[in-house]
Amino acid sequence: MQFSESIFATRFNLSRQDLENYLADALSQGGDYADLYFEYLLTSSISIDESIVKSAAQGVSMGVGVRVISGERTGYAYSDDLSPEKIRKAARVAAHIAAGPSKVDKFDLCEGAHHNLYPVLTAPTETAFSERVELVKRADRAARAYDHRVFQVQASYADNLRLVLVATSEGVLTLDRQPLARLSVAALARQDGGTPQRGHAGGGGRVELDFFLKEKTPEHFAAEAAREAVTMLDAVDAPAGEMTVVLGPGWPGILLHEAVGHGLEADFNRKGISAFSGRIGQKVASELCTVIDDGTISSRRGSLNVDDEGHATQRNVLIENGVLRGYLQDKLSSTLLNSESTGSGRRESYAHIPMPRMTNTFMLAGESEPADIIRSVPKGLYCANFGGGQVDITSGNFVFSASESYLIEDGKLTRPVRNATLIGNGPEALKYVSMVGNDLRLDEGIGVCGKEGQSVPVGVGIPTIKIDRMTVGGTA
Amino acid sequence: MELSPNHLPELAQDVVKRALAAGATDAECTIEEGDEFSANVRMREIENLKEAGSRGAGLRILIGRKTGASYTSDLSPEGIALMVRSAIELADITTEDPHAGLPDPDEFGAIPGDLGLYSPDVEALDTELKIDTAKRAEEAALSADPRIVNSEGASFDTHVGRHIFANSRGFSGQYRSSYCSLSTVPVARDGDSMERDYWYTMARGFAGLESPEHVGRTAARRALQRLNPVKVDTQKVPVVFEPRTARTLLDNLFEAVHGMSIYRHESFLAGKLGEKVASEDLTVVDDSTVPGLFGTSPFDDEGVPSRRTVVIERGVLKSYLLNTYAARKLGMKTTGNASRGLTGNAGIGHGNFFIQKGVQTPEQIIAAIPDGFYVTELMGFGVNIVTGDYSRGAAGLWIRNGELAFAVSEVTIAGNLKEMLLGLETIGSDLEFRGSVAAPTLKIGEMTVGGK
User: Which listed CATH number (3.30.2290.10, 2.60.40.10, 3.30.70.2860, 3.20.20.370) goes with A3-232?
Assistant: First the structure.
């Protein structure tokens, strides 16, 4: 898409000259760098509960964020009114982070080429609601049909289409059109009036609506949610204490997101407050572990053609054969660290200051057969699915909650166990990885990462791995 | 009292009229307007300053028993027209729901009087004063002890907003609110051990804040007490939650008495009204009428007056928290707990949700424990409201012979909320409102600590 054809030019009458003028305003007090982030966001959501489509909503929001960097300082202002006077006002407010004469008088904005990772012709947000509402109705029917013990089903579908324009005082002018869609299903099962159990599943990506009709159907997610709920009816108390833990492939990759991903974000390391600060080149995992953050995987939820600072995303090696290789950098941290941006500058919206964030974080496949990994464990826990996780980047301690897991006894999966939290320490936990499977799988596309109050969509992935020692927070 | 100096209440009523003219049988419009400011300092220097204002409108309509919703940040005539069209369009794809609808006519209203939600001094604060207040808090932390070697910074934030709600049954209301907050996050180091913690203060007006020096010193003390932690053995012991972590148990309890969870049978408290569900020392109240607090408002997000609801009285479950929809599903009356963002069907929120304080001080509670775990931080999301299963990451201090003996981290605490509520042995006297959810120190007789 060319700037001249974008909604920002056609509907909001922005010209290149306007953008250059706003950048000049932003740097009028002597700032070193400025950028403008224009956003036009369309959202829709539909949900079904008790087989009744109880809510459907759609909306539009738009705005511009103006950032000025002066040394280590950032000034930020935004406006949800795209009139020239309001944008100029925001630029002048942000400008005041600096104090001095303007150092720049000319900008030459240049539209560069970038990835085309989600060549979606018609975004789901642009399709008829009558098609999208069928997704939640089908999910509801399929989850109920899965097993007679399923007695409650909720399904929700949400999509959005984000149009962004980034213009920087370094001459970058980028546009992107970012579609995103997600379907999720939660099912409750109960046996003979006993305690209900819940199962959930969901997924999506930067895809066309066809994805839910051909690749991952409502029936697929519904069956997953119902199966998990029914499985948990037989769950026994989870064990407590240190033991061998085997993680199944896919979403359990959230381990990497919490254990190492956040701790490798450059802002924390620049400030020396991460447990990984100053550890580049050191061994932080077993040599079987290579961990990647890759924003360039086609159609994935965590992928972006350009980050929210106008920089192309890329594939970043975080840990290579157990050795810490690099941090995730945004504009500010890379400037202060004399490094390069890794295309990791992200923000929730025009109302937020960008910072280093993950995209799709995963571990490369190893050579072990998944079945051999399980067979090698006399006594331990196998985790097939997880809820959320959290990390304290300073101490390095992280947690994630197992929503579907099984006891391993004599090399076999036996009873399902009740929900339990697993806890470990980032720079230590991956040193105990003793087997890595050949079955790398990325998650189905449902992750949301929160940092300092900002939420962004992300992906994770992992093959089956065996961790010799990890603390499991059960009661038995 | 100042009446609307702007046109937003009229705009909300106009949106409702337009929706009715477009075919809606009922309509509700919410408008939010706000100004935010934030100053962050780190290592004695300004790190960032942020300032902006924003507003948005949301609409929910009914056509008979079918509903549709929309929102916009574009309040121009075209933006409003699109919002109305969007909501009407969506009623076409939703299903007839016999329980959908606005509150009964006799339920609308607002509690009168000044609720102390808005303090004009917040808007008048000088930028230099805000930056200086943040710097003082960080400085107090940095200079508290030589082991405070680093900082994630300090921030001073203000927000001033206006909330407007109108519906097709003639309700129209608005209120202004303000808050300011100050927080700091120091980092302590001793050898290889590095730990951080935070402290904060929040108030409707500047005068209500704790001093920056108190905030900084408290944060520093908290970070220091976490240094050189031990991972203890797996065992069952008494667990004491300090107020900051005790509050999270109330967050869990709120989910369990949430009307939507109740009618879906996805709460361990569903169907338990009138039964003993907790120790008889426990009384839990939701009160949206206390002037100046953060959970206070004149009316809820359906235009129903705010009120005080006793949720648990001396261990007996007395009431769920309901909006109109959940109340109709359960054959009950709304408790005035409707809550929504700009758009969509009303959800359920709490007002000031708190545990009535007991008589023992935290020191007395700790002094009575020979061996136990004093929890100062909880991590993760391991709480299952359907079953009550509870398993979270934890850090804190070990209690030995009635005293806080050493730091503990990288452990879990686990149990089941049903048993934890019944096993509440002591409720502290140290109740304080630092937000809309408040609890004093709590002691639970026994939980599993997962460690080595």
Answer: 3.30.2290.10
How is residue A359 written in tokens?
């995209």
CA distance A298 to chain B (A): 30
Which residues from chain B sit within 8 angstroms of residue A62, using beta carbons? 73-74
pTM: 0.95
Query: Which residues on neighbouring strands pair with residue A404, listed in sequence order?
Result: A385
Judge: domain B8-223, CATH 1.10.645.10.
no
How many interface pairs between A and B have CB atoms less than 8 angstroms apart? 258
Q: Domain ranges for chain A, please list them.
A: 3-232, 240-473
Among B160, B159, B158, B138, residue whose Cα is nearest residue B150:
B138
DSSP letters spanning B241-308: E-HHHHHHHHHHHHHHHBHHHHHTT-STTTT-TTSB-S-TT--EEEES-STT-TT--SB-TTSPBP-E
A88, A28 Cβ separation under 8 angstroms: no
Instruction: Tell me the one-letter amino acid at A146.
Output: Y
CA angle B362, B367, B370 (to 5 degrees): 130
Q: Residues of CATH 3.30.2290.10 domain(s) within chain B?
A: 8-223
Could you report the predicted ipTM of this complex, rounded to two decimals?
A: 0.94
d(CA A145, CA A150) in angstroms, rounded, equals 8
pLDDT tens across B323-365, in order? 999 999 999 999 999 999 998 899 999 999 999 999 999 999 9
Chain A partners within 8 Å of B265 (Cβ): 151-152, 188, 190, 196
